Amino acid sequence: MRPTRPGLLVGILVIVALLSWAAVRQFYSDLPLMPWTAIPTVLLLAIGEAYSGWATKARIARKPGTKPVEPLAVARLAALAKASAYAGAVFGGLFAGFALYTVQMLDRETPRSEFFIATGSFVACVALVCAALYLENACRIPKGPEDQQPE
Hints:
0% strand, 71% helix
């Protein structure tokens, strides 16, 4: 499995943001109110993945007081990290498009609250992507002395 490229995630986020902005522009009056529950949910996922990355990195490095990690568990965590990074980019793009549309209507109460909810959800999605990239990086096997290139 190849490492996730952050540039690709940014590209996905921008494209989805533009598409969702165009869709929200057409159907804003027909959409239900945006729930605020995405913010704590995605932040909890980001915290969980960041902690898993920290713990996995310590276990792979065989730091004192840690148990060795199973290779299959590391593969599963890497797959989770990759999926979370892409999902965070897609949902972050959706929330960014919504925020881009509602930013022009901050003088009205409902669009203003939806702007802050969309912006908070976008920030939470960015935190999830960062945590997922950290977890994916933590799942890499450290290079041994025989793999090092002489300088």
